[in-house]
Amino acid sequence: MINFNVPPLVGKEHDYIREAIASHKICGDGAFSKKCHAWLEERFGCRKALLTTSGSSALDMAALLCDIQPGDEVILPSFTFSSTANSFAIYGAKLVFVDVRPDTMNIDETLIESAITEKTRVIVPVHYAGVACEMDIIMDIARRHNLLVVEDAAQGVMSTYKGRPLGTIGDVGCYSFHETKNYSMGEGGAVSVNNPEMVERAEILREKGTNRAKFFRGQVDKYNWVDIGDSFLPSELNAAYLYAQLEVADEINNNRLHSWEEYDKAFRPLEAEGLIDLPVVPEDCVHNAHMYYIKCRSLEERTAFISFLKERGVMAVFHYVPLHSAPAGLKFGRFHGEDKYTTADSDRLVRLPMYYGLTEEDRNTVIKAVKEFYNK
């Protein structure tokens, strides 16, 4: 069976984990955490990067930094993972779901402004498949209405919008290093804090509400509990695993892009025949080949397609069930406007195997199976 995903492993992970163990510092913010922070800050140019226990906890930190209060409204797409919504709903926010664009499956930036009310506090664009949302328009809307922007860039590490790394454009950006992501620490994530007014508080929130980071920098002679917070620090063992991949980030990125481009070249004729729809990458966006998906013509066809591939040893999967139609979505949110594309296109979308080290032989097996299904 050709797996849908294989977590990245580049070779130095075992050595770095042993090094972390030998240092007798395996809780958070040891040498490897600091190396990861420095890499992210230097590579992406963010004011402060901090590892977290997951992409979900990065979003939790972002919600706290936005000082979400019960009754506040947050605008986001319904086509996203539950974490995007949970992190704001847990603090009492009302979720306002907006339809997506059918080309990128990102939030439709032209529909955001009409969803704003006097209670709106935050816009949460989700960069689906590592392809950027239309951030210039979103940031303009946010600034004109005095709103904060939290980028859910869980899938967007190494992607850019008009030359700017995803996760560094809004007030806060959130990354995921889950085992299914391009760069992995098993479970983990990071926040990119870009609003200078949020940097100090981000350190405090992440350290259980204490000013411990200041203490270790020698800025205070003792540390105290000064705010609310939680334990958002991942283990040093996880950070060591991640750092091995960050060292060869471009190699991983280029390897994935090659597979993505081979898929895309192979399937363009099927799209030209009107049999499938393929991903769209707008001109101003550089993506990271986080996933390769196709859209079948119907839910029934997708079901048959996934079954057909499985019979031929290829694991393909669908993606999100729209949040606004889920039990929690109905409880904690509302859909603004018409659901023109969110449900219809999510019913058609299927993701093909995509990971670092996908062999040419396996990739060709996938291509052959897809073509066989549609040539029938």
SSE layout and pairings?
Layout lengths: L12 H10 L8 H14 L3 E5 L2 H11 L7 E5 L4 H8 L4 E5 L21 E4 L11 H10 L3 E5 L7 E2 L2 E2 L6 E5 L12 E5 L5 H8 L5 H5 L19 H11 L2 H24 L12 E2 L5 E4 L3 H13 L15 H6 E3 L6 H5 L2 E4 L7 H16 L1
Parallel strand pairs: 2-3, 2-4, 3-12, 4-5, 5-8
Antiparallel strand pairs: 1-9, 6-7, 6-10, 8-9, 11-13
Helix pairs in contact: 1-8, 2-8, 3-4, 3-6, 9-13
Write up what this structure looks like.
- The chain has helices spanning 13-22, 31-44, 55-65, 82-89, 135-144, 199-206, 212-216, 236-246, 249-272, 299-311, 327-332, 342-346, 360-375, and strands at 48-52, 73-77, 94-98, 120-123, 148-152, 160-161, 164-165, 172-176, 189-193, 285-286, 292-295, 333-335, 349-352.
- The chain has 376 residues and is an alpha/beta fold.
- It has two domains: 13-246, Aspartate Aminotransferase, domain 2, CATH 3.40.640; 249-375, Aspartate Aminotransferase, domain 1 (Alpha-Beta Complex), CATH 3.90.1150.
- The strands form three sheets. An eight-stranded mixed sheet has the order 1-9-8-5-4-2-3-12, with helices on both faces. Strands 7-6-10 form a three-stranded antiparallel sheet, with no helix packed on it. A two-stranded antiparallel sheet has the order 11-13.
- Helix 1 (13-22) runs antiparallel to helix 8, helix 2 packs across helix 8 and helix 3 (55-65) packs parallel to helix 4.
- The radius of gyration is 21 Å and the shape is globular.
- 50% of the residues are buried.
- The mean pLDDT is 97.
